[in-house]
What we know:
This protein is an alpha/beta fold. It contains 13 helices and 19 strands. Helix content is about 35%, strand content about 25%. The strands form five sheets. Strands 2-1-3-4-5-6 form a six-stranded parallel β-sheet, sandwiched between helices. The longest helix has 24 residues. The protein is globular. The N and C termini lie far apart (about 45 Å). About 40% of the residues are buried. The C terminus is likely disordered.
Amino acid sequence: MAKLHLITYGCQMNEYDSERVAGLLKAEQYELTDSEHDADVILLNTCAIREKAEDKVFSKLGELRALKRTRPHLMVGVMGCMAQLHKDEILKRAPVVDLVFGSPAIARVGELVERARRARPVLETGEAPLVKITAKPDGASRLKSFATVMEGCEKHCTFCVVPVTRGRQRSHTPAAVLDEIERLAAEGCREVTLLGQTVEMYGRDLQPPTDLAALLHAVNDVDGIARIRFTTSNPFNFTSRLIAAIRDLPKVCEYVHLPLQSGSNRVLARMNRGYTRERYLDLIAELRDAVPDVAVSTDLIVGFPGETDADFDATLETVERVAYDNVFVFRYSPRPGTPAATMPDQVPLTVKAERNSRLLAVAGRAAAIRSAQLAGQTVEVLVDGRAKKNADELAGRTRCNRVVNFEADARVAIGDIVAIRITDVLPHSLRGTLAARVEEAVCLSR
Ligand code: SAH
Ligand code: F3S
């Protein structure tokens, strides 16, 4: 068998795509290797969301040029969002690359690799029909799996390159999604995360139309699955039906990632986000009213073009008001082909850096208070492995996706769901003691 090494950058969607590629190439007699030094094919699954993500890829391609001098038969491929966005530039800037293909071409990866073996380079970035690929490489953990429910995005936020790199919004049919999840469950999957760039829009483009709430109900009925998550949601179309599904369905975790981006209505309008700060706060209130213990996280952009001190203060104030469990802060990065890249009043890097750290400090205080409330509580944990720093301990995640470490116990195996009483709240994890072993997912608060 030939050897394949995969390097994945970016989001969960990319992790999922990489897994599919490994699964499909297994059928072509490629086995995965952890080391790039004994690989026959190296594929970089790339991200284009910010410039920094792209810089990493170009510097990796520079390193691979040196490796290829010692292994001339080595094939280097670039797939994913950068492949779609910069197809010609990649081949020009990095002649080491033999194969470039976008995400629509993943289903044909076997054929593309074969073509590139015969004559290099191969470039494949056109649109292709939507196919649901179900292929997992050997040895991949099934315990927690992703399932894409839709591709692309049509919201056209003015800062975002995803509509360019991932194309139109297309939902997979409920039958295709359920078929994949049933198979995953049969292979031992206990937690599934439904993926889409605007997952709350799921199904509106299908004939007959359906929605994410209906899909969650159907996935909730799949035997063997204990937990359901979904990501990522744009607040614009987060409906009361969806909130009711989170409240009513026992397997749907009480955790929502709801990107705010900015707390200033002026900036939100320039971002073309489709909601106001007031609508967002109402949505959070409705969500917390229905699901009192829900954990909420968000994405924020600092230094969007034209963002004034007053706009930034509105973001600080909104973040303080919401009191998130976790926030991800990004410095605005101009992306080719997006409207915001050519807006006047680009914000200097130093201002972005300063706003970044002020925002993290404010958000961090609220998150620490939220974490501290967990001390003494008993939470439901899906055990997913050994603790990172101590092999005598087991680790898992709560329903709100926090890491919990606890002393290993002969009664508990990986894949079990247990009740853990939290004894210590640490900055990035929780520690606790085993309270009980539970057979089925029961919502024991967070
Ligand atoms: N579909 C999601 C976002 C996907 S991109 C949504 O609806 O919000 C993940 C995050 O990257 C975004 O939420 C945004 O905060 C950030 N991001 C996207 N484009 C960016 C850019 N040009 N500069 C900085 N951050 C960006
Ligand atoms: Fe990007 Fe906005 Fe879609 S952030 S992925 S264009 S919802």
